[in-house]
Design a protein that fits this description.
Blueprint lengths: L2 H8 L3 H10 L17 H15 L4 H13 L4 H42 L9
Helix pairs in contact: 4-5
Length: 127
């Protein structure tokens, strides 16, 4: 696939794909005889992983480290596992913060929905 096709398939810019490759979030993409990027299934797997992890808030540095470890080989399995566990813990903490914010927002929406029905807003320490 061309970079344009990959960009359209995943809804990210061609510049983002080039950046991911340049900094080492995805491995170097194979090239045609003319030097154009030619994304293969394996490349698409790396792109999908990068998009997923970035959208979840995983840092660029963590993704670069993960790729480096993968490229070294099986002797880095423990290091990769530790890196992934750390990222999972960070995402879990982020999820907890988001859930707390959602709970508060849901409460406030219910207060304002009631106020809209009654024409009166009852203020308390949560408003």
């Amino acid at each position: 696939m061309t970079i344009k096709e990959v960009s359209e398939k995943y809804g990210i810019t061609q510049d983002t794909l080039r950046y991911y490759e340049k900094v080492g979030i995805i491995p170097p993409v194979s090239r045609t005889k003319g030097g154009k990027r030619d994304y293969r299934e394996e490349d698409l797997g790396w792109v999908e992983q990068a998009i997923c992890m970035r959208s979840a808030g995983v840092s660029i540095d963590a993704l670069i480290e993960y790729l480096k470890l993968c490229q070294i080989g099986n002797e880095t399995i423990s290091a990769r596992l530790n890196l992934l566990k750390k990222q999972r813990e960070l995402l879990f903490e982020q999820k907890q913060r988001l859930e707390a914010a959602m709970d508060r927002l849901n409460y406030k929406v219910s207060v304002y929905e009631e106020a809209e029905k009654t024409g009166e807003l009852i203020w308390d320490k949560e408003n």
